[in-house]
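[step 3/7] fold_predict: job queued, chain A
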Amino acid sequence: MTQPQAGAISRYFAIPERGSSIRTEVLAGCTTFLTMAYIVLVNPAILGQAGMPVASVAAATCFAAAFASILMGLVANTPLALAPGMGLNAYFSFTVVQQMGVPWPVALGCVMISGLAFLVLTLTGVRQMIVAVIPPYLFAAVAGGIGLFIGFIGLKDAGIITASPATFVTLGNLKTPGAELALFGLVVIGVLSVWNVRAALLIGIVATTLTGWLFGQVAMTHQPYSLAALTGTAFKLDLGGVFGLSGKKGLGLFEILFVFLFVDLFDNIGTLVAVTKRAGLMDAEGRIPGLNRILMTDAIATVVGSLAGTSTVTSYVESAAGVQAGGRTGLTALVTGVLFLVTMFVAPYAQLVPLAATAPALIFVGGLMLMPLREVPWEDPMSSLPAFLTVAMIPLTFSIANGLAFGITAHALLKLLRGQATRADWFLFVLAGLFVARFAWMSVA
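[step 4/7] structure written:
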């Protein structure tokens, strides 16, 4: 790189002003990529259970993460990388497609519409209203509930837990090849993590897959790869089918869009606060510079991701690893995106990775997502009851929507009965009323 080129890059990203250097930003981008590259293998494994072609989803995952991260770097100049979100991909696959019976092309249409709605809410300022009525402890509870949801799915995929007619769930047969392989992978990921290895999840998945091949537990077949794999999901979304959602699918479009919107919103706000605070980018009043540009980038990325063929794209808290390595500007996100773009050339090989190899990553990530629960004031019943209902109902009903509904309704009801309701809470009670109507409708549907 010539000195004029380096100077232009430094000026564009304001690298000197933020106390960084091009070398540091590049290393930080590589660090962020290594910590979140596991999504290239895990996301196809989850969406594949919805009937989507695994190789195509892998390519779409890389493309969406690349586009979103590069756009975030160039437009918002923030060291924040994005990719299809954990939790939302599980909701897409297990709730929307498998439980509600929505075909995956229609579900992709819902993802696109939710992205467009997010963009409109950001431009009109409605987003601020939504954030204002949700107490911070419910943000934490949703994150924790999704963590349990993801962990539960990982344990189920591994065969470590299984269905039981007497107790609903019980311990599975740990001597089965899948359970043994998954437990091995969990040990590998755990050991690498306690030694602070950045790519612990990715290494763990690859090591588990190779071990399965060596011991004959996974059949390795030759699968030629090509970027043409992306065509299996690209532009396959069914927008026309979206508006036909009704009946026992739960209030159909409204419910699905609500979850996609709210969880994406919660993910973004929580991640933004964590990453920008660690990077020292917040102003003296605790505001995030360029917040609207960041949220608009996320919304556009979700729309593009749905066109490519993947679930909702959102900010990744693993971006904090890049910030820890010194990343302070959008160049970090740009480098991460370029690395995802390069990974597209081998992404279709994700179809060779068994569920037993990705299950340990789900279990481990699920555990990490419980960290925000420490922000809940558990000693206060006003907070602890709604938070508990949120955390418990998400995994136990296999529905993020139910967890949100119980948590927000309980919060509104307790606030009303304690005499703390004000005129400013009108939007909260509107949301709670809609949730009550939803439950009433579901009970007679």
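[step 5/7] annotate
The chain has 19 helices and four strands.
The chain has one domain: 17-223+247-444.
exit 0
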